[in-house]
Design brief:
213 residues; alpha/beta; nine-stranded mixed sheet; two-stranded antiparallel ribbon; 30% strand; binds 1-O-pyrophosphono-5-O-phosphono-alpha-D-ribofuranose
Length: 213
């Protein structure tokens, strides 16, 4: 794994604190969702730091003020299911983003991604696509999403993930070296079942109260 200008691991006391509460298996589904929401806001701020602006004047109650609007069109791509938890906080920061869902799950036996939903509008690719998924484990789901978005016609692709494994980041970088990756934390490794260690368990199940145990 290369730590390059394209790979951003957040370093902020509030991120470290909220990650700890997120990981804690004592945290309820409601707490888990709240933590994802807070951490996604940090990811949105970091992943938009270099956006271009166009000048725009607005009238305040006192008079005209010079301001700015966001120049690029931005698509927000949540990977179902767990990516849904990042939609509202990111959309809160970029209210005009178009949201297109990608349905993907990881086959529990092979750990390979299976795509089951994709409805991107033809011939209307966004300038920037921000893929949101709380977990980047083997990177299979994200790589499949990036391939889909490249075929759609977007070249500026940004991955926003709460937690990642070094193996998954390396796999994304190897296949798509121009992808920008924003993560709150890069953990140690994957275990034999391809789970992130120490990780946080299954994000989708914790988010939607569907854990089997
Ligand atoms: C999890 C997670 C990612 C994927 C990460 O989803 O939310 O989408 O696995 O693993 P990868 O990097 O090895 O592909 P899961 O398959 O559990 O589906 P869900 O969100 O519907 O629960």
């Amino acid at each position: 794994m290369t730590h390059s200008s394209l790979l951003h691991e957040l370093d902020h006391p509030l991120v470290h604190y909220h990650m700890t509460v997120l990981r804690d298996c004592q945290s309820s589904g409601e707490q888990f969702r709240n933590q994802i929401d807070r951490l996604a806001t940090f990811l949105a701020i970091e992943a938009t730091r270099d956006l271009t602006l166009t000048p725009q004047t607005v009238q305040t109650p006192i008079g005209p003020a010079d301001g700015h609007m966001l120049a690029p069109s931005i698509a927000l791509i949540p990977i179902l299911r767990a990516g849904l938890g990042l939609v509202n906080p990111v959309l809160g920061m970029i209210p005009q983003a178009q949201v297109y869902h990608l349905g993907m799950y990881r086959d529990e036996r092979t750990a390979e991604p299976v795509e089951y939903y994709c409805k991107l509008p033809e011939n209307r690719a966004a300038d920037i696509a921000m893929v949101v998924d709380p977990m980047l484990a083997t990177g299979g789901s994200i790589r499949s999403a990036i391939a889909t978005l490249k075929r759609w016609g977007t070249n500026d692709i940004r991955v926003l993930s709460v937690l990642a494994a070094p193996e998954g980041i390396a796999a994304v970088q190897a296949e798509f070296p121009d992808t920008k990756i924003y993560v709150c934390k890069i953990d140690k490794q994957l275990d034999s079942r391809k789970f992130i260690v120490p990780g946080l368990g299954d994000a989708g199940d914790r988010m939607f109260n569907t854990s089997k145990a």
